[in-house]
Amino acid sequence: MKNAVVLVSGGMDSAVVLALAREQGFAAHALSVAYGQRHPSELAAAARVAAALEAAAHKVVDVDLRSIGGSALTDDALTVPKGGDASASGDGRIPITYVPARNTIMLSVALGWAEVLGAADIFCGVNAVDYSGYPDCRPAFIEAFERLANVATKAGVEGAGIRIHAPLMRMGKDAIVLEGLRLGVDFAATVSCYLADAEGRACGQCDACRLRARGFADAGVTDPTRYV
To answer: What is the pLDDT of residues 110-127, one digit of tens each?
Structure first.
């Protein structure tokens, strides 16, 4: 089996991506990043998902993005919007829950581990359809990072090259739900909420919760999310 690194946040999208990587025959090494997020219960969810989907390994790397702030997910002086008053409105604004450079940093850490493992494949769950307006969830970002990976690493210059896989990029949340069910993903084990409590229970009002709930509703599937 070829090695791959899969970014696993603990949310529903990355769980489906991990299952897809396993289905494609990769020895999937799950990578989670403790970046100072307001909702650390997602890291416990990531561990559950990695174990349930039989990841070859699960590593948690600490990167202190709270020290620079700039996001409602890393700065307690900022408030996570509720009730659809930001982000997923489709008006083109980048919401306050955007974490500066988060996906760039996470993919960079994944790239380093991939080189150590001799892996040419990195998977992530970014999505340009049902997402919250983040610039680092677009095809242009993934394409640019793959180009960077192949000029900035030994593996890219001397090896077979690095491939960045974003299999959910053009899927709506409803399609992601159905794909997860096909793959046997236990969505009840995942945490998506920006304001999840210590037990992983969701607020039901933030953008992440609203997008997730709409996905299950549009798919005609009972939502297994545990709410406060």
So the answer is: 999 999 999 999 999 999
